[in-house]
Amino acid sequence: SKLNESTRQHYTRLGLFAMAERNATVKLAPEKFQEERISYDVIFTCEERVFELVCEELLRRAGVKSKPVHVINIEIEDNHTESLVGGKTILELARCIVASKDLERDMDGIIEDVGNRMPHRLLYTVAFY
Which one-letter DSSP state was computed for residue 64? Predict the structure, then answer.
């Protein structure tokens, strides 16, 4: 169905069309973590509910590979402005993680340091694949 003009203008003002266009260049379709069989070193989530679901999924998998994964939640309100600020927090975390020579040793300090410098509440845990 077509959007009426006032709805189209409202969505344009909110930046939803621009956000959808940008997202379309990042991935082809929504992805489900539960269906992924790839092991990650770090997983970022942007909502506590999603953080909990990821942790539950990792627990369900029972850690048979004994491979650690660092799960970090950056609580970001779902709007364009907060997304931009939250993206900067994620980028700073990623920079610190990449610069680490020993992530297992350094991660608690990275979380504390970035958490003190950036405006978002961070949740962090280590789980296992």
Answer: T
Identify the CA nearest to 90 among candidates 118, 124, 126: 118
Mind listing the pLDDT tens digit for each residue in 4-25?
888 888 888 877 777 778 778 8
The tens digit of pLDDT for each residue in 59-77 reads 998 888 889 999 999 999 8
For residue 82, give the nearest of 25, 124, 26, 19 by alpha carbon: 19
**Four-point Cα dihedral 90, 94, 95, 98, nearest 10:** 180
| Block residue for tokens 């992924």 | 36
Owner of token pair 């990650």: 40
Q: Residue 103 has which token pair?
A: 């992530």
Residue whose entry in the numeric block shows the structure tokens 């990623």: 94
* Predicted TM-score of the model (pTM): 0.80
Other beta carbons less than 10 A from residue 43's beta carbon: 18
Give the contacts of 86 (CB within 8 A, at least 6 positions apart): 46, 74, 76, 120
